[in-house]
Amino acid sequence: GFVLESDRVKLSLPTGESAEILLHGATVISWVVDGQEKLFLSEKAALDGSKPVRGGIPLVFPVFGKSTEGPTAALPQHGFARLCKWELLGRTSEADTAIQVDFGLGPENLTDDQRNQWPYEFGLIYSVNLSMSSLETKMLVRNEGSETFDFNVLFHTYFRIPDINNLTIEGLKGTSYKCKVTKSEAVEEEVELPVRSEVDRVYAGVPNAVQVKNGGETIFKVGGTNLEDIVVWNPWEGASKMADFGPEDGYKNMICVEAGAVSKWHSLEPQSVWEGSAVVNI
Ligand code: BG6
């Protein structure tokens, strides 16, 4: 099923799975499988468009983090895609086992300030595909202008988890990463990476799907196409300093494992298209 409300789209399958996507930021804020919510959404998250959503799957484009130089330096952290109201393009397919909805964003949806901050002619098409045991998010970036531009893309996915102290992440061993907490670089040594304190790492060039595990059992498998990097983030007790993070100990029930193309710039020539997708399997 497909229901359009004033500020969101609701998708559902006859077998009970569902997803909810806000037009604000085209942010997926809910994904339910087997009656269980799979995404973490802060109880203090602003859903009215006044700020990016703290939880769900905010979209990062055209810059990951905050640039201090270059063509994205004027943009806020993580760019504008998560701040804008997207256009609903419609549902592109619907079957008993899967349903897809597409959203679009272009310069016409930006404020004058945002257009001045990043003055390129671009078109984004974002597709969310709900199936019985997976959620696929796909971004198509088109350069509609006459100047080459550089970009990052990332699906900033907040997974809901039973307990951070039982969590491990598998699939990163041997991959080099930059740690934003200790401002250092290293190669991952852990087969199963535990998260027992604040973590903020960009793993560059992750070869295979990554598994999020609870007590040794895989609860999410994160794979994709053309998204070579994985960011792992949990603010730990620092969450209490974020005005929109709640409950205060909610960091124990979330982990961000974010598939993206962020460790280097992707360059897109005039009239070219780039496409990347992330698939999360239960
Ligand atoms: C992560 C970054 O992806 O997003 C972190 O690696 C950042 O450094 C986090 O703190 C949340 O960012 P924001 O802008 O949503 O608070």
TrEMBL record:
EC category name: isomerase
Keywords linked to the UniProt accession: Isomerase
Catalytic reaction list: alpha-D-glucose 6-phosphate = beta-D-glucose 6-phosphate
Highest taxon, organism lineage: Eukaryota
EC number of this enzyme: 5.1.3.15
Residues involved in substrate binding: R54, Q77, R82
Name the UniProt record assigns to this protein: Glucose-6-phosphate 1-epimerase
